[in-house]
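Predict the assembly for these two chains.
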Amino acid sequence: MDERHLQIKGSLEAIVQARHFVHQAALDAGLSEQAAHHCALAVDEACTNIVEHGYRGEGTNQVIDISCRKDDNGFVITVLDDSPAFDPLAVPDPNPAASMNEREPGGWGVFLIKKLMDDVVYDRQNSRNRLLMMKRL
Amino acid sequence: MSVPAISIRVEALNSKIWLMTLYGEIDAGQSRAVGRALNEQFSLGHKRLILDLAQVDYISSDGLRILVGAWQRARESKGNLVLVGVKPRILEMLQIIGLDLVFPIAETQGQAIAHFTRPR
């Protein structure tokens, strides 16, 4: 599978495009329907965090770049954005066993990404946030 | 690419229990519409709600957050929110976050109705 790229606007309404793009690429790379769903959900959660927290809302002229490729280890999704430096992996995990009254709001999206993907890495590249998410084939 | 809009139908099952059926995908862009629809029901005093997700193929954490908020509001009103028709991929998400222990989940509408009639 050749590497594929998609650029979307930094708005919540555009995220469906990223989700469908990644789902199809994952299937084309040979992942199962369930694994492709996990990849689509992971990119949705990553993009939603960028729009809501990085870009702080909608109506901006900012973009999110998504790419998918297949390598020896698996299916790799890269998400690039231009919001201030922020490592989503540093967000503390919620406690799934805690009662709702004890839970802090938020953090579910990143927690899902960590649970659904086999490897997740954050770094900065050319002054952009880069999130790499890998699913084994 | 067009955004699949969420579609919502509400009907009274009897004088005390209301059924809300959702159709579509509930991501962050669509979850607000679901939240508004749920709030409208609570404003009308409909605090015993069954939420049918059989036609929902996709839900993100933002969508789940809206459902948790509705469940909390229902409980505060001494009502409840029962999920029915939960597909395996959505159940998997609920289990990962630990929400399967929070929400009453029924397999059939009849079982969902029974949640409201059994003694606590």
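The helical segments of chain B are 28-43, 61-76, 88-97, 109-117. Chain B has a mean pLDDT of 91.
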